[in-house]
Amino acid sequence: MVGWRVALAIPLVVMVALLLGPAAGGAPVEPVVLGVPTALGSIEGADSLRAVQLAVDEINARGGVRVGGVRRPLQVVSIDTREHEPGIPIHDALAALEKLITERRPHAIVVGAFRSEVLLAAMDVVARYRVPYVVTIAMTPAFEARIASDPAKYKYLFRMGLQSEYFAGNLARVLGFVKSRFGLSRVQFVHQDVLWAKGTVGFLETWARQAGWSLVSADAYPTGATDFSASVLRARTGRTQVLVPVFDMPQSGILLKQVKGARLPALVLGFISPAVPADAWQTFEGAVDGMVQFVAEPGPIAIRALPKSVHFNRAYGEKYGEAARLKLSGHGPGPSYDAVYVVAAAMERAGTLDPDRVAEEIRKTDMEGAIGRIRFNDRHQVVYGGLPTQTAISLAFQWRAPGRRVVVFPEMAAEDEIRLPAEIAR
Amino acid sequence: MPELLTVLVYGLVQAAVLLLVALGFSVTFGLSGIPNFSHGGVYILSGFVCWFSLRKLGWPYPLAVAASVAVAATVGLLVYAAVIRPVRRLVLAEVIATFAVGVAMLELFRWMGLVTYEFNLPAVVAGSVALGDVVVDAHRLVVVASAAGLGLALWWFGRATRTGLALRAMAQEEYTALSLGIREDRMAALSVVLGSALAAVAAVLVLPLGLISINLGYDAMLVALAVTVTGGTERTAGLVLAALLLGLSTVVAGVLIGPHWSEVVYLAAIVAVLAVRPSGILGRLKELEERV
User: Fold this and answer.
1) Is the CB of residue B254 less than 8 Å away from at least one CB of chain A?
2) Residue A153 to residues A106, A146, A147: CA-CA distances in angstroms?
3) pTM
4) Does the beta-carbon distance from B251 to A237 stay under 8 Å?
5) What residue ranges do the domains of chain B occupy?
6) What is the mean pLDDT of chain B?
7) Domain for residue A97, yes or no?
8) Region of residue A239 (phi > 0: left; psi between -120 and 50: alpha; otherwise: beta)
9) Bridge partners, residue B130, by sequence
10) pLDDT digits over A129-168, tens only?
11) What stretch of H or E contains B135?
């Protein structure tokens, strides 16, 4: 008797367990999807994606994001917009963004547009699909102006990367320092012919004239240009003392080789994206020597006053290898890493993935990150300043033999003052 | 005065760069009438081969250069056999086919992710040289000397060797050349191989001035076309003169007006020469001249 009852009970119990199992907590939980539509072929875009994956892995290792009482893992989906390449129209980058949104249905987007031109065009797409969007690379101030023009429509959009006005302001401060400290007075700007760089140089030109600088020229180069000899010649004939490059394309590192080859007696002070990584000294065979290089956000350089920047830098090296850590770019990775934590925290506070409520919580963010203290202004831009306890920070270092990056700005993080290269000091 | 000297010296360097980049394309077109627009792709491929040999395999510079030239010549032969020969004498088809090969090569490199700043070649000779008040890096002087040497060598090759004379004969009157026993197919293949090898020589000399960038492949096509159209295809002297004119013009435009205008010079030169003297400054193509 007992035998047939047991034989009947076992499959019955198994079936009940299978049916009730999911409701009892064994159901596979859907991941929270983070989209990364950016220029993955650029050094900034590729590094930012890796920084996002690092943060996602860290959060998942702790059990994921708790949304509405359920812990859910984060998942990254990416698409290459190729917008950093010369000749790629904005429309192609927008199509890639729309493809990611419609096919992969991300709950939020991080990193986002690489080019400012693409960011401005993407704002309406993001507003239409109602996806919280935290951009970390594109720098145009027009982003904030657009948000101010219609806060309700653009409430899903935020920026954690450096905005070009902050960058230009920092450049102006350091230019002011070298003018008063060393008596330099002839400045020349060389920049990429893209929105953020033009905006930066436009501001600096006006500032330089008012501050008593003599302006040699402001030369624009199309994306992808590799010959800067026209500017080097202008610098020589115009007796340039400070050469200010503003570029985010890989080819721009060659400017330094051309300046060195012409033995130009000028201090190079600005932003050349390939001159940021720790291995740039080897890559450009020492041509970076003496350059004062701005870094948009901490990340490639760990700042002791920012423990999370130290953690990020170390963890990045452990995950992707020392060679990858040495190549970390100067714009994007730090805020991209932080952006995942900002979005995850906002989702947890909101207790839902509803985009309106998540966006509202992102707006209220106040946390310590690798880039400093993260708080948004009323135009959804993270506030940058000089004190990491109060704001996010941007910094500058000077390349010195035999390949050291010595932080010279801001004051709270500076290891030394700017020194003039031997050519100009003579 | 120092400013003028600076512009002249850098103008001369730029002329040498243009001549080197254009020589391969021009030699092929001038000798066999084949418009080999895969030139830009072969140029960049040679740069990558040199970079790989130097940086990854650790080969010495001369060996890396030899590898680049050998690979470029082989690719030239393959392009001729697989792409050009089937459409030989159909000029438009030759243009389209070779252009497609060039674009495919360049976009393949882009797809492979060969787009970072790591891809740069060291200078053949490091350091700088002061020519009076003008400081110029030593590698640029190597470029000038090499361009002059190659120009002379090609001039000699076309006039003093049987192969060179055969190639020129084919370019001037193909059917008469055939009747004299010149093997047209072999000569055409040789001209493409020679042009590709010259593209490699240009790459290892010119690319150390900048990066190995995919876009430079497209620039190389534009430069080759501009110098060839401006100078005319029949005479090396025409190419040299065109390179000098364009080199100086681009430097003057870049310094006096702005760097953006350097590119415009090439396009303006092509349009102006085609409108006024379509066979080029020193060209002698009667057919073209009579039409205008």
Assistant:
1) yes
2) 19, 10, 8
3) 0.78
4) no
5) 2-114+133-291
6) 87
7) yes
8) left
9) B135
10) 999 999 999 999 999 999 999 999 999 999 999 998 899 9
11) strand B134-137
